[in-house]
Amino acid sequence: MSHILVFDSGIGGTSVLSHLRYRFQNSTFSYVMDNAFLPYGLQPQELIKLRIKGLIVWQEQYLSNVDMIVIACNTASTYALEEARKHTQIPIIGVVPAIKPAAYSSQTKHIALLATPATSNNTYTQKLIHDFAGGCKVEILHSTELVRIAEHFYWHSTLDQAALCEELKQLHIPYSVDRLVLGCTHFPLIADNIKECLPDHIELVDSGKAIANRAVSLLGKQEINIEKAPLKEVKFYATAPVLDSKEEVALISFS
Ligand code: DGL
Question: pTM for the whole thing?
Answer without folding.
Answer: 0.95
